[in-house]
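Sequence, structure tokens quoted for completeness.
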Amino acid sequence: MNRENKKLNVGDVAPKFSLLDQNGVVRTLEEFSGKWLLIYFYPKDNTPGCTTEACEIRDAWGEFKKTGAEVVGISTDSVESHKKFGEKHSLPFTLLSDSEKKVVEEYGVWGMKSFMGKSFMGTRRTSFLISPDGKIAKIYENVLPAIHAEEVLRDIQTLL
């Protein structure tokens, strides 16, 4: 089934997932219930924008913890790639491997992209703020990596 046109909306129940983290441990959406959760989808480990976004979240980690929020980064990279990326940049949050592209499709972030005049299928840089009751509280499309952590923290404070 081609889900490129799938569109989630604020208020929808967040689609469930079950994916391996950077340590090879199965992680599910259910384990985060009762907490604010930022699920951020990103194209590729160790690329400039993705590294900036991850490091901005890392640098704001203390503020995320003060709100009680959790963060999960998801890309189609392998568990091994995530492990190296996380260690290289001392990332304190979970990275999940969606190598089969099921979750990126379920969340509607897998689709046509273009870069330097070439079109290709890939993950759109999109984030979902999930409320403690498991519903989508906010959707961030066309995320700007350098300011995303600050933007999400501001929104969590407003919604608390």
User: Anything to note?
Assistant: The beta strands are 18-21, 26-28, 37-41, 70-75, 94-97, 110-115, 118-123, 126-130, 136-140.
